[in-house]
Amino acid sequence: MNLDTVRELARIMGEHKLMKLEITEDSTHISLESQPVGPAAVSAAAAVPEAPALPASGGSGLCELKSPLVGTVYLSSEGSAAPFVSEGQKVKKGDTLCMIESMKMLNDIPADIDGTVSKICIKSGQMVDFGQPLFFLEPNEKE
């Protein structure tokens, strides 16, 4: 089994919210298991870690907003609703940029700086990993 197959199986697990997956193919056996959530994590599920906007590499002046958790990203509150933000849109610190569904909980992902959405790096319905770039923001000039 190659690494691409393992990645695809992990994606399928996340997509279908499977806790465990075992496959035997010829003499190869693979067992994938997602980490269980303890009681402390469940009670604190609403307290999503902050996703700090970090300066992007290359000295471009853009800030990279990374995913604070693993889950499915949504760019609007409902499938037919307008997206929270679009490229070129000005945002204020605290404005919702997207939502990430993790452990059957929807978590708002806010902007942590005032600025302009320079690039949206994800698509609605896409699985994202911890630390994966979501947005690039251009900070507002200080007055």
Summarize the structure.
With 143 residues, this protein is mostly beta strands. The chain has helices spanning 3-15, 39-43; strands spanning 20-25, 28-33, 53-55, 63-66, 71-74, 90-91, 96-102, 105-110, 115-120, 127-128, 133-139. A hairpin with a 2-residue loop joins β1 (20-25) and β2 (28-33).
Walk me through what this model shows.
- With 143 residues, this protein is mostly beta strands.
- It has 2 helices and 11 strands.
- The protein has helices at residues 3-15, 39-43; strands at residues 20-25, 28-33, 53-55, 63-66, 71-74, 90-91, 96-102, 105-110, 115-120, 127-128, 133-139.
- The strands form 3 sheets. A 5-stranded antiparallel beta sheet has the order 3-4-11-9-6, with no helix packed on it. It has a 4-stranded antiparallel beta sheet with strand order 8-7-5-10.
- The longest helix is centred in the N-terminal third of the chain and has 13 residues, at 3-15.
- The protein is elongated and about 60 Å long.
- The termini are far apart.
Which features would summarize this protein structure in a list?
2 helices; single chain; 2 domains; OB fold (Dihydrolipoamide Acetyltransferase, E2P); 11 strands; 143 residues
The residue-averaged pLDDT reads 80
Q: Provide the domain count.
A: 2
Strand residues, percent = 35-45%
- Tell me which CATH architecture of the largest domain applies here: Beta Barrel
Helical fraction: 10-25%
Structural class estimated from helices and strands: mainly beta
Tell how many strands the DSSP assignment holds. Answer: 11
> What would you give as the CATH superfamily of the largest domain?
RNA polymerase II/Efflux pump adaptor protein, barrel-sandwich hybrid domain
End-to-end separation in angstroms reads 57 Å
Oligomer: single chain
CATH class annotation of the largest domain:
Mainly Beta
Rg, alpha carbons:
18 Å
Give the spatial strand order of the biggest sheet. 3-4-11-9-6
Number of helices: 2
Here the CATH topology of the largest domain equals OB fold (Dihydrolipoamide Acetyltransferase, E2P)
Low-pLDDT windows of residues: 37-47
Largest sheet: 5 strands, antiparallel
Overall geometry: elongated
Would you list the SSEs in sequence order as H and E?
HEEHEEEEEEEEE
